[in-house]
Structures are given as C-alpha cells and as structure tokens.
Amino acid sequence: MAHTPIGKIVKSNSHVDYVCQVYVFGEVPQPPDPADYGFGAFVAAELEPDGAGSPRLIGLIYNTLLMNPEFGSLGPRLSPRAEVEVFSPDYLAETATLLGIIGIGWVDGDGGCHQGVPTLAATVNCPVRLLDDDEIARFHADGSGQPQLRYASLLLAQNNALIAPLLLSVIDRLGALFPASRSRLAVMRNNVAWKSIVQPAG
After folding, report:
1. What is the pTM of this model?
2. Cα-based distances in Å from 49 to 34, 39, 107
3. What are phi and psi of 20, to 5 degrees?
4. How deeply is 59 buried, as exposed, middle or buried, from its count of CB atoms within 10 A (0-12, 13-18, 19+)?
5. Which residues contact 38 (CB under 8 A, 6 or more apart)?
6. Which of 38, 101, 111, 125 has its CA 20 to 30 A from that of 132?
C-alpha cells in the first residue's frame, strides 16, 4: 500500500500536540480525501534523518479545524470574485483545514517502535502521512504478537473531551488488526467507555 500524504506540520501547542495543515491542489498532485484524515487516523510525521536512518513521530488525529478568513465578511465586494482571482490573486483569503495530532510514540532510525512521550519533536513543514495497517500493527505488537497500548495513560491525561472517543476508536481498530486479542481489548474498551460516562458526571 502506497503511503498517503496528508499535510505538513505548521505549529505545535506542546511537545506532543501538533497542528497539521492538509495539502490542497498545487501542493501535491493528489490532495487527500477527507476520509484519509478522519478522527482517530494513525499518522507519521517524517523527522530529520539521524545517523541510523529516518525516524518518524507517530500520532493520532484527534481534532479538525476549518479556517475561513472570509467568514463574517458580508459587506459588498468592489469586484466580482472571478475578477479578483485574475487581477489580484494574492488578495484572496485562503481557506485551510487544520488537524490536531497528538504524538503517541516514535519509530527510530533502525525501525524500532516506541510508545509513549516521543523523545524527538517534529519541525515546521515536516511532512505528515497516513499509516497503513501493517505499520499500525507493527507499532502496537509486543514481543509475543499481542497488542500493547502503553500510550493510553498519555491520552487519558489530556484534558480533552475527545480523548475517550479517540481511545475507543483505537481499541476498535486494534481489534480488527489483532483478532486473537479481541476479548482482551473488549475488557479495556468497556473500562474506557464506563469511565467516559462516570467521570464527567462525577
């Protein structure tokens, strides 16, 4: 499966919280479809090469923001939009789709997978791509082939109402990739679902 480019890192809110701007026409030959960067999608940010190889920051898409500078500009235009596009293209306000990405681990230059707070940080304009199923399974498999979620505590520590649904979507995805571990994952899923209901009420 070919790697699907999503966008590029444009800023960070913390060491693990990044903002990715989705590619549009003109930046890449084929911009991604909305389905490619849906909630809970696993992505990789390509970091600067080190001595061993090219490390990658592994993250999850947890939020989407639509930027439209023209919103609220309801006054009359001096020129039709079609004419502005021809004579003053720089005047046009550009819209953008921004993705919130939380880092959950990294892959080192030798291909070793590590879960938890990444030791390395992404840089501005570093490319972000979608992970395929094989990469997701390899990132989560322990030595015995069972799925591990060492970054669950990192997610749950975030003060964000979207984290519980995010973790549930991750568990469902892993259930499809590790069918032999579905019963074990189901216990974790029920626990997360219960806490997401009880904690807001308490």
Report:
1. 0.85
2. 29, 29, 12
3. -115, 130
4. buried
5. 61
6. 125
Question: Which residue, 32, 13, 34, is CA-closest to 100?
Answer: 13
In this predicted model, what pLDDT tens digit does every residue of 97-146 receive, in sequence order? 999 999 999 999 888 999 999 988 999 999 999 999 999 999 999 988 89
- Concatenating the DSSP letter of every residue in 76-139 gives PPSS-HHHHHHH-GGGSPPPEEEEEEEEEEEE-TTS-EEESS-SS---TT-EEEEPPHHHHHHH
Query: Which tokens is 42 given?
Result: 């696993």
Instruction: Report yes or no: 103 and 79 within 8 Å, Cβ to Cβ.
Output: no
Q: Give the separation between CA 48 and CA 143, rounded to whole angstroms.
A: 28
User: Look-up: residue for tokens 């235009």?
Assistant: 77
